[in-house]
């Protein structure tokens, strides 16, 4: 049976997996690499590290799965979104890539909004407001701060598309990842000439556009030799990590929504039509499903808040877990489960690294509100999990207000592996949640796109239907649902009450 490779160029490492045509995972592996922060708020990586990790991971997966080069029917690419790789006329990298979590571009975001004629007109052109993580502000930052490097730049690529260039020699991207550049006319699925003109950026700085299933090229002879594969092996468009992860979760039809509780938290809803939040709280991007779109909300410190709690306040649990040879999170969730729903009036705001959705506020900070002598560590642990889940509910509520149906919520990430947190999510969202048989994320999604794009399936919707199924369902508990419905407006008000204080605190730091 033909196999397909999915390569996901993440922030901490590159994951490659081999998938049989029927969806069975044959092998997967990850190679890590460093991230550098030359100044506070800056985040950079060397694109050569992505390429090295891609080569090593493909070779290892081929060996683990005992595959021959002729067995590989196609390759799909996913990767961290928004990053900027600047290439010169020889195709060489000019400087380290600026990543999605780089915060240096606040002035450039203001510049984009001003040149576009205001926030409302900008959203009208590209369906989204200017955020520091996006690609367009990074290009302007290079022009404003490293003029010599900007003048040498002839091509700007996203992370996965740099790896594509090394694989095929082609400058190409696809609509889902391109949506996060802030330079895509999301409605018409093409580069926005009006905005490029207002920003005085040449259109030929950007690569050719494809749909996610389209074959963008074949492996070059040199790349095939490096990877141990056959020259000409098809490479499909793939997707940005969020759209690719949604494919891997089967979020390919109306009414099906994913809630991924990882370090960050992402709510992702499929849409058959373009639906734009006029306030710009949710992103509206092209989906990796041909001719479809999605809306997406991002919580910057979802599971990351619980990780912080573990690392800073749970040394005794870490030590006890080591002795018992179990995960410390098991002991932490046991303590949380001993506290009642609502943590007896204790709220946690999970804004440890600022917030994206719905506030877009880099000054927001994590907070416990409501502490009393009654509260112990169990209450604190539970409130952290509740706060992260309330933050995810913010995105779900905005989607519902846009008339996007939320009929089925599919959980993934660390928050899906814990039965306690699955139940807590069902109770706070106020409806059943489900898990599925696939847990491999974006790499699996782009392997499915490779299978669809090379003819193993009619399209990626058929591929998902054939390979992905629901395995657990967790209904909401009525009493807990009632408690959280009463607590949620209080949670929302706390940010509004503290917003100005957060800004004042930032000035003191």
Kindly describe this structure.
The protein has 509 residues and is α+β, with helices and mostly antiparallel strands. Helices cover 42% and strands 20% of the residues. The strands form 8 sheets. A 7-stranded mixed sheet has the order 18-19-17-16-22-23-24, with helices on both faces. A hairpin with a 6-residue loop joins β18 and β19. It is globular. The mean pLDDT is 96.
Summarize this structure briefly.
The chain is an alpha+beta fold.
Secondary structure topology:
Layout: E1 3-9, E2 13-20, E3 25-32, E4 44-45, H1 47-65, E5 72-79, E6 85-87, E7 97-98, H2 106-116, H3 119-126, H4 135-145, H5 147-152, E8 155-157, H6 159-168, E9 172-174, H7 175-178, E10 184-185, E11 190-191, H8 193-198, E12 208-210, E13 215-218, H9 221-227, E14 234-236, E15 239-240, H10 241-248, E16 256-261, E17 265-271, E18 283-286, E19 293-299, H11 303-313, H12 315-324, H13 328-337, E20 347-349, E21 367-369, H14 377-401, E22 408-412, H15 414-417, H16 419-429, E23 433-436, H17 442-453, H18 460-467, E24 470-474, H19 478-508
Parallel strand pairs: 1-5, 5-15, 9-12, 16-22, 22-23
Antiparallel strand pairs: 1-2, 2-3, 4-7, 6-8, 10-11, 13-14, 16-17, 17-19, 18-19, 20-21, 23-24
